[in-house]
Design brief:
Elements: E1 2-6, H1 8-11, H2 23-39, E2 44-48, H3 51-60, H4 72-99, E3 104-106, E4 114-116, E5 119-122, H5 126-133, E6 137-141, E7 143-147, E8 151-155, H6 157-168, E9 172-177, E10 198-199, H7 219-232, E11 237-241, H8 247-252, E12 259-262
Helix pairs in contact: 3-4, 6-7
The protein binds adenosine-5'-diphosphate.
Length: about 270
């Protein structure tokens, strides 16, 4: 089984205030996945980020921050707005995938997962296994969920990757984003950033700058933390640049692709 995350940074225009799908990237990535599955059947789970759809409402309503009982009506609406926004992005993505002939089925986190202090603590994955057994491709995405401590919170696609990998024991965990992998500092703002083929500790970062984009879920640092947790359990993951044509196809085919492997080994 392969768990493939497609970053919100590639699927949407994250810098934009408006919800905007990058239809060209989406179509290209869908067709790369289809070509690989046509080459040989693979069990695949797709995770995607929320990009410019989920972050603005989550930020506006400060979802995940403690609040007074009197603020509940507003928070509830914020939860609904966010859930609806990420669902809208998911519908665009699933539509593009189905058009390419990929049998995707959306399984939203808000419908079956619960968190405690922003970490997923409940979420039965049996339906993932059942859909996989029948040849479907389950799709899950960054979403809002109920939280036992904070009432409501945001769950990032990166946390979902971690939860799925811990519980489903995949052969490969791949994250496609808009940079080649992990650098010692943000390559978008630092020309002298040094690229890592392998990454094993947060100490290797010069700065803990999250991301250039509006992101309430931690950007690259949040991503790395989730993946280091997996590395501690012996589950290796790889970050690649999904903006580079054919990278998604190649990585699914086990061909060499530039990227950063996150593992605790040498
Ligand atoms: P996605 O939406 O694809 O999951 P994010 O936008 O959350 O991705 O994170 C990717 C972004 O993180 C990159 O566009 C880059 O600008 C930023 N970033 C910040 N620090 C680093 C770093 N040390 N190495 C690589 N990218 C970094």
């Amino acid at each position: 089984m392969i768990i493939l995350k497609i970053g919100g940074s590639i699927l949407t225009n994250k810098d934009s205030k408006e919800s905007e799908v990058d239809t060209e990237s989406l179509k290209r990535i869908a067709s790369e996945i289809k070509s690989s599955l046509d080459n040989s059947y693979k069990e695949l789970i797709i995770v995607h980020g929320a990009g410019s759809f989920g972050h603005p409402p989550a930020k506006k309503y400060k979802i995940g921050e403690a609040f007074d009982e009197s603020e509940y009506p507003q928070k509830r609406i914020g939860f609904c707005e966010t859930q609806n926004a990420v669902k809208e992005l998911n519908m665009h993505i699933c539509k593009a995938f189905i058009e390419q002939g990929l049998p995707v089925v959306a399984i939203p986190a808000s419908s079956f997962m619960t968190a405690t202090n922003k970490r997923i603590t409940e979420g039965n994955l049996d339906s993932f296994k059942r859909y996989l057994n029948k040849g479907f491709i389950p799709v899950i995405y960054g979403d809002v969920v109920l939280d036992n401590e904070l009432e409501i919170c945001v769950i990032s696609g990166d946390q979902l990757i971690q939860y799925l990998a811990v519980n489903l024991n995949p052969d490969q965990v791949i994250l496609g984003t808009d940079v080649d992998g992990v650098y010692n500092k943000n390559p978008k703002t630092h020309d002298d950033a040094i690229f890592f083929d392998k990454f094993s500790s947060l100490d290797d970062l010069d700065t803990l700058e999250g991301t250039t984009n509006v992101d309430v879920t931690g950007g690259m640092v949040g991503k790395i933390k989730e993946l280091l947790y997996l590395a501690d359990l012996g589950i290796e993951s790889k970050i690649i640049n999904a903006e580079v044509e054919n990278n998604v196809f190649k990585v699914l085919e086990n061909e060499k692709v530039k990227g950063t492997v996150i593992s605790r080994g040498n």
